[in-house]
Amino acid sequence: KHGNRIYVPQRSIQGGLGEKFETDPYDVELHGLMTEHQYTEAIENLNAKLRPSRPNSIDGALLVT
Q1: How confident is residue 1, by pLDDT bands cut at 50, 70 and 90?
Q2: Chain mean position to CA 62
Q3: Alpha carbon 21 to its chain's center
Q4: CA-to-CA distance for 24 and 29, rounded, in angstroms?
Q5: Which pLDDT score is estimated for 14?
Q6: How far is CA 27 from CA 8, 13, 33, 45, 52, in A?
Q7: Which pLDDT tens digit goes with each residue over 48-59?
């Protein structure tokens, strides 16, 4: 059996080198699994935890060379 899933949109950051999850719940089907506030809080937390793994300026310089 397949349950409901929340599709979390992403957007490009740092000139297309990285991606970030969109924290705005507008146009996101939450299926009654969480409130808009809970969604925003969860995605902000996820983005903060993923920050160290995102490309930085050194990665951009290495890509250019």
Answers
A1: low
A2: 24
A3: 1
A4: 12
A5: 77
A6: 10, 20, 15, 20, 28
A7: 999 988 877 676
Q: Tell whether the torsion through CA atoms of 16, 19, 20 and 25 is positive or negative.
A: positive
SS (H, E, C) the chain: CCCCCCCCCEEEEHHHCEEEECCCCCCCCCCCCCCHHHHHHHHHHHHHHHHHHCCCHHHHHHHHC
Phi/psi for 21 (5° steps) reads -75, 140
What predicted TM-score, i.e. pTM, was given to this entire model?
0.79
How far are the Cα atoms of 2, 31, 43 from residue 20, in angstroms, in the given order?
A: 26, 22, 9
Query: Residue 36 phi/psi, 5° resolution?
Result: -60, -40
Alpha-carbon span 26 to 23, nearest angstrom: 9
Distance between CA 7 and CA 61 in Å, rounded?
A: 33
